[in-house]
Amino acid sequence: MDPTFLILVFLVVVALAFDFLNGLHDAANSIATIVSTRVLSARWAVIWAAFFNFIAFLFFGLHVAKMVGSGIVDPHIISDRLIFAALMGAISWNLLTWWLGIPSSSSHALIGGLVGAAIAKVGGLSAIQWAGLGKTTAGIVVSPTVGFVLALVLVLVVSWTFLKSSPFFADRVFRKLQFVSAALYSLGHGGNDAQKTMGIIAALLFAHGATNEPGHIPFWVVIACQAAMGFGTLFGGWRIVHTMGSKITRLTPMQGFCAETGGAITLFLATHIGVPVSTTHTITGAIVGVGASRRVSAVRWGVAKNIVVAWVITLPAAALTAAVFYYLGFWMR
């Protein structure tokens, strides 16, 4: 069998492994609030999230996939060695932060890995497409900020609407509504995050001449990536669930609904315009927003600060790791 084809298959499997780890690592983003408010047990929450992760391709275009596949680095420099290094850089960082229970961004780990591998290949910054990278890095600030604002506004609107309702009635209503908000957030997660791996595989297929353009996404790639992410979510990320669901701030069902809905709206907007944002950043901003709506001291700012530090170092750390793997991958073309 052609060795080039075997390497292609191997790298597609590695890309799907990253997608699986993305679901495993970021499952907490979709289910932390609904678990912490005890609306669903962890077992049923991951099943709920995994289902909506998988069907997300029915609701969104492939704008994010095309951005990752051709808008971050020059697609004409893509090679097996570069993709291998990018994926290994992202996977290594994901595994480290998952083990430590730090909700870092799988998205920015992948983008950082891609950029680091490209810099290692060309020996400089000439292969970087700055417009696409600029949109992605802007998301580090914009997505949690928008999530924060939307969640805060939703809390104020909902609190005013249910001002005369009894706490028991409001709690019962929002326990039901959290099923909807968690589903919406899982759709946003599956729609934005799974597409990043689609973009990587599409760029790889283009490098092998299997497609005519780097932005073309075969349907089998779409299904494989959505399924890999869904299976990853089924296995959950319990360490990060604990951080997201209880360490930052304590949540009621109403606050969980507002956080998930604010985060979902942010992800829907980003996916629609083709910007690969971090679901981790988005939901963290939303959770901080609902916590701050009570009082500033309700947020454990020390935990939030540690998460922000992880955000800042994810891109360069994954890039550096990918560059190391690029030099280790000398046996690839």
TrEMBL record:
InterPro entries: Phos_transporter
Membrane topology: Multi-pass membrane protein
Residue spans crossing the bilayer: 41-62, 82-102, 108-128, 140-163, 217-241, 307-328
Localization per record: Membrane
Any Gene Ontology CC annotation: membrane
Keyword annotations: Membrane, Transmembrane, Transmembrane helix, Transport
Chief localisation class: membrane
A Pfam family recorded for this sequence: PHO4
GO molecular function: phosphate transmembrane transporter activity
GO terms (BP aspect): phosphate ion transmembrane transport
Protein name: Anion permease
